[in-house]
Design a protein that fits this description.
About 50% of the residues lie in helices and about 20% in strands. By secondary structure, it is α+β, with helices and mostly antiparallel strands.
Length: about 425
């Protein structure tokens, strides 16, 4: 009897183990189906049966199907958004509630090229791509519905990587943000931002402010002197004893000198304004360049400004006719020569050279033997109103616009300007012109 009982227990135990193994395979199959989001089919699990199992399989399949449908819908809607917004010139950014990037069009990637080059922007945390405390404060304000409709935000350049010394670009962006319902169908809200690059406008605004400040300063000095001299003359004329003839003559000459300085400044401002205008044009014509240079130098040798100084030249005879505006090029050369003669001591040499520089360009140089320019000032000498020695420049009658005028004239011709100098050893100014 005992052997029969043992055999029966063994059969029952084997059946239980087999049933348990089948259910474990079914559970593993269900888990795999959920993880891979594939439809779970009952026939994939041999031996699984029963009404409870059938109900579980049916509900699981419905859940996975709905999840797949929603994911496909979200992907399709995001693709439609990308197709609609991706080609816009304005930068567009869409982030979820965790600040993960859901959409970033080409314009936005162009604003932050280093971030775009190092990672796929989609699904990245916004904080790892864009740096700027003010921007993240605006993002949170948009989510709280407490943000202004538009806000100008400064994005300082990120630090340069160790492998290079070049830092990123300094940006000013006008940002507009709003929230939109998430495409997931729940209560989550996404944040949508449109970013407009206003860096150029900010730079122009800064230049304009600096220009107005400089003009005001340059006009104030001679006007104050003229006003003071005129008031002195009026008071002296009204006095019973009258003003001595020598004093009156000195005041009148001072007024004349500073009135001439004002006139020169205004003429330079008008010239610069015309050169910078959209309608600035050149009256090009074929010009024998070597002959033009020789004529200008001959004219300068007879001027009082060149008295006691030597004017030398070295012009490559291979330079033929150049297609240029002779009046504007003459003005550029005269500005450079005036500048050189002001700072060259008596009996010293001012040298003008011209050579073919290759690449279809002619290079012209004007060298002086003046005090030279400090290395820190060299990058700025072609800026408007920039003076290396402000007091000395004003004493010599400079307006601070001559080199800027030279730069604009040469750039209109398709050339470039540069300067070289060593303190105590003079300076050299170069410009290039196309041969054709």
């Amino acid at each position: 009897m005992l052997p029969v009982i043992i055999i029966a227990l063994g059969i029952a135990l084997c059946a239980a183990l087999l049933h348990l193994a089948q259910h474990r395979r079914a559970a593993r199959g269900l888990s795999q189906a959920i993880l891979t989001r594939q439809p779970f089919l009952r026939e994939d699990i041999p031996g699984a049966s029963g009404p409870h199992w059938d109900a579980l399989v049916s509900e699981t399949n419905e859940l996975i199907s709905e999840n797949t449908r929603l994911r496909r819908l979200r992907t399709s809607q995001l693709a439609q958004l990308d197709a609609t917004l991706g080609s816009l010139q304005e930068a567009v950014l869409l982030v979820d509630r965790d600040n993960r990037i859901l959409l970033a069009n080409q314009a936005l990637q162009a604003l932050f090229p280093r971030a775009a080059a190092n990672a796929n922007l989609l699904h990245q945390r916004l904080e790892t791509i864009i740096h700027g405390t003010a921007f993240f404060e605006y993002v949170e304000a948009v989510r709280r519905a407490a943000a202004r409709p538009q806000q100008e935000i400064e994005f300082p350049p990120p630090p340069a990587p160790a492998a290079t010394s070049r830092a990123g670009r300094h940006l000013w962006l006008e940002v507009t943000g709003t929230t939109i319902p998430a495409l997931t169908g729940d209560d989550e809200a996404w944040a949508l931002f449109v970013l407009h690059d206003i860096t150029k406008q900010k730079k122009l605004e800064a230049v304009r402010k600096e220009f107005v400040a400089n003009v005001s300063h340059e006009l104030r000095t001679p006007l104050s002197i003229i006003k003071g001299c005129a008031e002195t003359l009026v008071d002296g004329h009204a006095g019973h004893a009258g003003m001595p003839e020598a004093d009156r003559d000195r005041f009148l000459r001072t007024i004349e000198r500073h009135a001439e300085r004002l006139n020169t400044l205004i003429e330079d401002l008008l010239t610069l304004s015309r050169l910078e205008s959209a309608s600035a044009g050149l009256r090009r014509e074929p010009v024998a360049f070597a002959k033009l240079l020789a004529t200008i130098l001959d004219d300068y040798r007879a001027r009082p400004a060149a008295a006691g100084r030597r004017l030398g030249h070295d012009i490559d005879p291979a330079i033929g006719e150049l297609h240029l505006d002779p009046l504007k090029i003459t003005q550029a050369l005269e500005n450079l020569l005036d500048n050189a003669l002001k700072y060259t001591p008596p009996s010293a040499l001012v040298h003008v050279g011209a050579r073919r520089a290759g690449g279809g360009m002619v290079e012209v140089s004007v060298r002086d033997n003046g005090p030279g320019i400090p290395a820190a000032d060299l990058p700025h000498v072609f800026e408007r109103f920039y003076r290396v020695d402000k007091g000395r420049s004003r004493d010599k009658g400079g307006t601070g616009l001559g080199l800027s005028i030279v730069k604009h004239i040469i750039q209109l011709h398709g050339g470039q300007v540069r300067a070289e100098s060593t303190e105590g050893q003079g300076s050299a100014f170069y410009f290039t012109l196309p041969e054709k």
